[in-house]
Amino acid sequence: MDRWIQAAGTEDNVAHMSPEQILLLLLDLLGTFAFALNGALTAVRHVRIDIIGVLTLGMITALGGGILRDIMIDDLPPATFQDWRYLAVAAFGAFIVFIFAKHLGRMTVPIEVLDAVGLSVFAVTGASKALEFGLGPVQAVILGTLTGVGGGTIRDALVGRIPSVMSEGLYAIPAMVGAGLTVAAMMTDLYGIAAAVIAASTCWLIRIIGIRFKLNAPQPLGTFRRVGTQD
Question: Global pTM?
Answer without folding.
Answer: 0.84
